[in-house]
Amino acid sequence: MSRFWNPALAKLAPYVPGEQPRLSKLIKLNTNENPFGPSPHVVKALQAAANDSLRLYPDPHSHALAQAIGAYHGVDTSEVFIGNGSDEVLAHVFLGLLKHERPVLFPDITYSFYPVYCGLYDMAYHEVPVSAGMEIRVEDYAQPCGGIILPNPNAPTGIGLASAQIEALLVSQPDVVVVVDEAYVDFGGESVVPLVARYPNLLVVRTLSKSRSLAGLRVGYAIGHQDLIVGLERVKNCFNSYPIDRLAQAGALASFEDEAYFQHTRQEVMRLRAGLVASLEQRGFEVLPSQANFIFARHPRHDAAQLAARLRERSVIVRHFRHPRIDQFLRISVGKEEECAALVTALTDIVGPAGA
């Protein structure tokens, strides 16, 4: 520990992102990036925005983008908060809306940034176990707490909840904020944004990194009752009053102007996912039902860590978590057709052909 550190810093366990390898010719299926590039309309908008105006500060409230997001989801602009990626939005959510005397609740198998935020902000939290089938049971969250956060679909499992299940949770917990992290919802999940109009304690967090292929721009947003949005704005303006740069605002806005491309690529990801699931199941894998752009799979006769290592030897990278309950699973991002085929070929070499 450096003698110049805040003493609390040594106790933090930072989030570990998926590996970003520097080697070429690797098939990278470990970080849930969209296999398809952004809309050509987005690329043109970025090129047009790269001009003399970059010497000026961006709009601190991203008004044009907020209006587009509001129109897209059928909500008022005052119900939209925009941040530098959904991770920054979530950081503001934890500090501004979930930090209370009672612990925040989230699943024991979920996005591993949640306990990191709690450590950073010195927050109490309680991990609620998912079922033996890796499903979130909303009835388990009917307990005293300072707030609740759930990814839907969950990560890394990919299993989603129906809107009615989340509404039941909102009814049972009217006095705390319920945050639904919809990072992957566009790949087959059911969004609860329509519930915002009826439940002032609901906040929905979304990202443009996955379904809109803009992970490199870092744009995320939240939708909720105006009181919640004002709270997030107060946190933002105490931290970074200009979070979204001019290029990111231009590119993000353009992504909402090309609905046809968005619909086509997300449908393609779901089609490729179905094919990948079928291929793995034919080779003896158990694959959890996924509504995300990744699958979560294990093989009854092969150790997951060894599988990941042997895939890497064949230039295919997947994600393995050394955590209790899931250390025999691999999280595999859905790649392009040829990438999925290469993964299946590599796995066939390791575990044997279909039906073996």
Structure characterization notes:
- By secondary structure, this protein is an alpha/beta fold.
- The protein folds into two domains: 7-37 and 259-351, Alpha-Beta Complex (Aspartate Aminotransferase, domain 1), CATH 3.90.1150; 40-255, Type I PLP-dependent aspartate aminotransferase-like (Major domain) (Aspartate Aminotransferase, domain 2), CATH 3.40.640.10.
- It has ten helices and 13 strands.
Question: Secondary-structure map with pairings?
Answer:
Layout: E1 27-28, H1 40-49, H2 63-73, E2 80-83, H3 85-98, E3 104-107, H4 113-120, E4 125-128, E5 147-151, H5 163-172, E6 178-181, E7 202-207, E8 220-224, H6 226-236, H7 246-255, H8 259-282, E9 286-287, E10 294-298, H9 304-313, E11 316-317, E12 319-320, E13 330-333, H10 337-351
- Spatial order of the strands forming the largest sheet: 2-8-7-6-5-3-4
Question: H/E order of the elements?
Answer: EHHEHEHEEHEEEHHHEEHEEEH
Shape: globular
What percent of residues adopt helix (DSSP H or I)? Answer: 25-40%
Query: CATH H-level name of the largest domain... which superfamily?
Result: Type I PLP-dependent aspartate aminotransferase-like (Major domain)
Q: Which CATH class of the largest domain? A: Alpha Beta
Low-pLDDT segments, ≥5 res: none
Going by helix content, strand content and strand pairing, the class is alpha/beta
The CATH topology of the largest domain comes to: Aspartate Aminotransferase, domain 2
- Radius of gyration equals 21 Å
Percent range for β-strand residues? 5-15%
The number of distinct β-strands equals 13
Give the N-to-C terminal Cα separation: 52 Å
Provide the CATH architecture of the largest domain.
3-Layer(aba) Sandwich
Number of helices: 10
Describe the main β-sheet briefly. 7 strands, mixed
Task: Quickly count the domains.
Answer: 2
Oligomer: single chain
Mean pLDDT: 95
